[in-house]
């Protein structure tokens, strides 16, 4: 599964206000060439949106983001998510994910966070909030002492088409995450063709950064 995240190298971070947007959004991303999504547990629509997408688009690698409570980890998995993420590192959430076998990436921002994540058995980590936490330079610095451990990052927060290639050129970066191609306004306005266009553009930029 991690290989599939690595293959596309872009994780769209989705905030859905309406369940009705879930399937057309999934179609728009697929049309643009992206078969991976992170649906954030920030809205009431998250769980049912995951359920609908998982049922209709089994080809999509479906993640649940913003998992802040243990209960959400189980609900996300039961709805059909196959991986989970959070903005921070919460040992209780990591333990819950491990218990039910859900691949989980906690958020980290400091060397201490990285060490704690590694000691809890997590190697694919969300680096959040990427741009304000030092961006590419910070990741280069973290790669020094931790590159040999196998740790890999998904920088998210302030990443978009303008800076994604700088991140993806770093060997320590597995993929980048971002909301720009699934901008809430575009989703709420049903601008599916525009989402497809931005997605294609992002994938082309990511491919060039290889
Ligand atoms: C988030 O969890 O909201 C992500 O970090 C998205 O950040 P972005 O909107 O800057 O891409």
Automatic annotation (TrEMBL):
Pathway membership: Carbohydrate acid metabolism; 2-dehydro-3-deoxy-D-gluconate degradation; D-glyceraldehyde 3-phosphate and pyruvate from 2-dehydro-3-deoxy-D-gluconate: step 2/2
Molecular function terms from GO: 2-dehydro-3-deoxy-phosphogluconate aldolase activity
Catalytic activity: 2-dehydro-3-deoxy-6-phospho-D-gluconate = D-glyceraldehyde 3-phosphate + pyruvate
Keyword Lyase tagged: yes
Superkingdom per UniProt: Bacteria
Enzyme type, top EC level: lyase
EC number(s) recorded for this UniProt protein: 4.1.2.14
PROSITE patterns: ALDOLASE_KDPG_KHG_1, ALDOLASE_KDPG_KHG_2
Pfam families per the UniProt record, alphabetical: Aldolase (PF01081)
SUPFAM superfamilies: Aldolase
Family label: Belongs to the KHG/KDPG aldolase family.
Subunit structure: Homotrimer.
Protein name: 2-dehydro-3-deoxy-phosphogluconate aldolase
């Amino acid at each position: 599964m991690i290989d599939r995240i690595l293959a596309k190298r872009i994780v769209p971070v989705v905030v859905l206000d309406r369940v009705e947007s879930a399937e057309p959004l999934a179609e728009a991303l697929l049309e643009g060439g992206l078969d991976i999504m992170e649906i954030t547990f920030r809205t009431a629509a998250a769980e049912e949106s995951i359920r609908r997408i998982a049922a209709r688009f089994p080809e999509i690698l479906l993640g649940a983001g913003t998992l802040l409570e243990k209960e959400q980890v189980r609900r996300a998995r039961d709805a059909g998510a196959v991986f989970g993420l959070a903005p921070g590192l919460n040992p209780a959430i990591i333990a819950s994910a491990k218990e039910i076998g859900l691949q989980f990436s906690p958020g980290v921002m400091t060397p201490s966070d990285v060490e704690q994540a590694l000691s809890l058995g997590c190697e694919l980590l969300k680096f959040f909030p990427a741009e304000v936490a030092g961006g590419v330079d910070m990741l280069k610095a973290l790669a020094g002492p931790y590159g040999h451990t196998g740790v890999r990052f998904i920088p998210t927060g302030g990443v978009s088409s303008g800076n994604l290639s700088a991140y993806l050129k770093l060997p320590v970066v597995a993929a980048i995450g971002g909301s720009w191609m699934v901008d809430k306004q575009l989703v709420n306005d049903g601008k599916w063709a525009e989402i497809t266009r931005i997605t294609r553009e992002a994938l082309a930029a990511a491919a060039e950064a290889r």
